[in-house]
Amino acid sequence: MSKDSTRGSKKKVSCRRLGGYLKEQKGRLYIIRRCVVMLLCWHD
Asked: Is the dihedral of CA 14, 20, 21, 26 positive or negative?
Protein backbone atom coordinates (compact mmCIF):
# COMPACT_ATOMS: atom_id res chain seq x y z
CA MET A 1 0.00 0.00 0.00
CA SER A 2 2.84 2.41 0.75
CA LYS A 3 4.10 2.07 -2.83
CA ASP A 4 0.70 3.05 -4.25
CA SER A 5 0.40 6.09 -1.98
CA THR A 6 3.84 7.38 -3.02
CA ARG A 7 2.97 6.79 -6.64
CA GLY A 8 -0.24 8.79 -6.28
CA SER A 9 1.53 11.72 -4.60
CA LYS A 10 4.23 11.73 -7.29
CA LYS A 11 1.54 11.82 -9.98
CA LYS A 12 -0.15 14.80 -8.29
CA VAL A 13 3.13 16.69 -8.06
CA SER A 14 4.00 16.03 -11.71
CA CYS A 15 0.51 17.12 -12.80
CA ARG A 16 0.87 20.32 -10.80
CA ARG A 17 4.31 20.95 -12.29
CA LEU A 18 2.97 20.28 -15.78
CA GLY A 19 0.07 22.67 -15.21
CA GLY A 20 2.42 25.39 -14.00
CA TYR A 21 4.73 24.79 -16.94
CA LEU A 22 1.85 25.00 -19.42
CA LYS A 23 0.60 28.20 -17.78
CA GLU A 24 4.11 29.67 -18.08
CA GLN A 25 4.33 28.69 -21.75
CA LYS A 26 0.87 30.15 -22.42
CA GLY A 27 2.00 33.45 -20.92
CA ARG A 28 5.20 33.45 -22.96
CA LEU A 29 3.36 32.63 -26.17
CA TYR A 30 0.85 35.41 -25.48
CA ILE A 31 3.62 37.96 -24.96
CA ILE A 32 5.50 36.82 -28.08
CA ARG A 33 2.29 36.95 -30.13
CA ARG A 34 1.55 40.47 -28.91
CA CYS A 35 5.07 41.60 -29.84
CA VAL A 36 4.82 40.07 -33.32
CA VAL A 37 1.43 41.72 -33.93
CA MET A 38 2.81 45.07 -32.77
CA LEU A 39 5.84 44.75 -35.07
CA LEU A 40 3.68 43.75 -38.05
CA CYS A 41 1.17 46.55 -37.48
CA TRP A 42 3.81 49.22 -36.82
CA HIS A 43 4.49 50.63 -40.30
CA ASP A 44 5.75 54.12 -39.36
From this structure: positive
